[in-house]
Structure formats: C-alpha cells, structure tokens
Amino acid sequence: MSEQLATKPRGQRQVRVGTVVGNKMDKTIVVAVTNSVVHRLYHRHMKRTSKFYAHDEQNQCNLGDEVQIESCRPLSRSKRWRVQKILKRAEGS
Q1: Residue 55 and residue 65: Cα distance in Å, rounded?
Q2: Angle at the Cα of 11 from the Cα atoms of 6 and 17, rounded to 5 degrees
Q3: How many structural domains does the chain have?
Q4: Pairing outcome for strands 15-22 and 28-38
Q5: Whole domain around residue 44: which residue ranges?
Q6: What is the per-residue pLDDT for 67?
Q7: Cβ atoms 35, 50 nearer than 8 A
Q8: Phi, psi of 3 (to 5 degrees)
Q9: Residue 73 CB neighbours (<10 A)
C-alpha cells in the first residue's frame, strides 16, 4: 500500500522563469517575472512584472541571475515557490 503511494505521480507544477531582484533574506529570493499582455481597448503590447518569493535552500542565487522557479506547498506566509535551477549567472558574479 505504501509503495503505491510513494510511486504515485504528482501533478503538473507551474514553472516560471525570471530574474533575481532581491536576496537579502536567508534562504529566500525575490524573483521578478515579466509577462507581455495586450491592452483590451488599445491593442498595444504592455509588459507586466510580477514578484514572487522563492525558496533558495543553499543561498546560491545572486542579484541578476536568471532562475527557473516551480510552485510548491506554502513554505511561509508569502513563499509559495521553490528554485528549480539557475539558468544563467549574472555578469560579474
């Protein structure tokens, strides 16, 4: 019975790619994700930026790094994302 529960596949998780804009907290980073949307009335492309708090277990992310984050269970009041991998390191770090 427990083997079936352990091998049960978990559902698709949300994945976002963004830039680290804050790393002053312990094991937490702030990731800015830019999204392009079209204005309903004027049909112009606009950039929308959302900030997500993500869990960084080894404190290895620096400002300007491009990271991939995935959704997870709530880790604190504001942290619902976890760093999956670092895609590109910032210049000079």
Answers
A1: 15
A2: 120
A3: 1
A4: antiparallel
A5: 12-88
A6: 98
A7: yes
A8: -65, -35
A9: 7
Which of 86, 91, 41, 37 is CA-nearest to residue 61? Answer: 86
Q: What phi and psi values does residue 89 have, to the nearest 5 degrees?
A: -80, 150
Are the C-beta atoms of 86 and 65 separated by less than 8 Å? yes
Could you give the CA distance from residue 29 to residue 81 in angstroms, rounded to a whole number?
10
Looking at residue 73, which CATH number applies to its domain?
Answer: 2.40.50.140
- Work out whether strand 45-55 and strand 79-88 pair parallel, antiparallel, or are unpaired: parallel
In the block, tokens 């997500």 appear at 52
Higher pLDDT, 85 or 4: 85
- The model carries a pTM of 0.83
Does a structural domain hold residue 79?
yes
pLDDT digits (tens, 9 = 90+) for 22-61: 999 999 999 999 999 999 999 999 999 999 999 999 999 9
Radius of gyration of the chain (CA): 16
Structure tokens at 78: 């504001």
